[in-house]
Design brief:
The structure is a homodimer of 134-residue chains. Chain A is mostly beta strands. Chain A contains 2 helices and 10 strands; from the N terminus they run H-E-E-E-E-E-E-E-E-E-E-H. In chain A, the strands form 2 sheets. In chain A, strands 1, 3, 4, 6, 7, 8, 9 and 10 form an 8-stranded antiparallel sheet that branches. In chain A, a hairpin with an 8-residue loop joins strand 3 and strand 4. The longest helix of chain A is centred in the C-terminal third of the chain and has 8 residues. In chain A, 41% of the residues are buried. At the A-B interface, strand 6 and strand 10 of A face strand 6 and strand 10 of B.
């Protein structure tokens, strides 16, 4: 739990808003709501070990991830997964199919800055996920 | 220096790009460059004690600050200054004249997410700044 306690932007509550598009237990702390004037939403997302998003695409916009604690993965389709740690950042361009989440043994938190709409796709299979971690 | 060492997104280099619009020594670590597809730039800005921006306005856009370490101030014109610490965030709407910076005795770092263009105005006077800290 040390990684959660060190999570400066707060873990918030169980991620019921998007939980159906994730595997495993995640938490979400919404910080800034997207509006007509503030055109990107900002949240802090915390993944318990092995939790991850489904594959998804950002349409008519983009997403930036700023890793605040723990260890995780980011993968774009047809590319190798990248391991992430606190201080790393990722820029996700419009139309790129990808997923992100915790490693098998670590909690993981990132700020997400999201513009546009998210198109949610299939889960990352246990087989594909486990192959990353071994 | 402990606050700088704990600064997870890195202090980067001396803020020569915007130094003329700041009072005191600041550092800037650009993380994401604004472009035609990624419509907000992201940087980590670190202020040495008592360093601060000039008064300024964001036009045709907005700015979000995410405080990552230290203690600082945020003030909008005609309003009292707010004290900031790690984990706090600020949303700055288009057209709002404001400044941000460190307290007198603390280093201060925030992520800035900036869309649109910045209109730089006069420095925060030493008198106004010192009145906040005493």
């Amino acid at each position: 739990m040390a990684q959660v306690e060190n999570n400066i932007f707060g873990i918030g509550e169980k991620n019921t808003a998007f939980g159906q598009y994730f595997t495993g237990l995640t938490y979400r702390h919404p910080l800034v709501k997207k509006s007509t004037t503030i055109k990107a939403g900002v949240s802090n997302i915390t993944f318990t070990p092995a939790a991850r998003t489904n594959w998804h695409i950002h349409n008519n916009g983009y997403q930036i991830l700023l890793v605040t604690s723990g260890n995780g993965w980011y993968q774009e389709t047809e590319k190798p997964a990248q391991k992430l740690q606190a201080g790393d950042h990722i820029v996700i361009h419009e139309g790129v199919k990808h997923w992100h989440g915790a490693t098998e043994n670590s909690w993981f938190s990132h700020i997400s800055i999201t513009s546009g709409t998210s198109e949610w796709l299939e889960p990352v299979s246990d087989e594909d996920y486990e192959n990353l971690n071994h």
